[in-house]
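FAQ
Q: What does a multi-component entry look like?
A: The components come first, one per line:
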Amino acid sequence: QQPVQSPQAVILREGEDAVINCSSSKALYSVHWYRQKHGEAPVFLMILLKGGEQKGHDKISASFNEKKQQSSLYLTASQLSYSGTYFCGTELSQNAGNMLTFGGGTRLMVKP
Amino acid sequence: ETGVTQSPTHLIKTRGQQVTLRCSSQSGHNTVSWYQQALGQGPQFIFQYYREEENGRGNFPPRFSGLQFPNYSSELNVNALELDDSALYLCASSPWTGEYNEQFFGPGTRLTVL
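Then the predicted structure of the entire assembly, as tokens:
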């Protein structure tokens, strides 16, 4: 089951904040966040695991609400370089091993 | 450290033909996953290879097949191409360490089926 991302698109001015959500109808073991710029490969941002463990870049903040089967990515003090499409990828079990089911993406545009 | 590379960059085929796409994983990464990304959509998991064995498969028909070689590079083969197979095909490599690790994606192969 594909996770649902919201919003589908967002436009920000530099310095503004944004929250991107990823919701699943099934219990999740892990949520993975990637950013893809136009014409480029997706780039890893963060992994959030059931139980609270997180792995990712220091400047990225995210949460994982296991009860609500939802994850949120927090982009604060946005920069022009944050523009791109953000995807969440999910796994239902611990043994899935990076076999991700991705959402449809959230397009973020940061303007000067 | 060399990143993930894919070849070719672009490919045009006609319906019914067969295609082979190639992926060289990042040095030291023994796991390769393949994804199909249609225009404007998120990547869809095709299958994953670990130490030359298929480790998992998404909801794709058997005409999508793959290989992984001893140097951990990988191929994706698609037989009897259909128009809907037109997409960006991404491979991603990661080390299998027993813990979750980030995947490193290649730039992709853009396949167009006419």
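Q: Is there any commentary attached?
A: Sometimes. For this entry: The mean pLDDT of chain A is 92.
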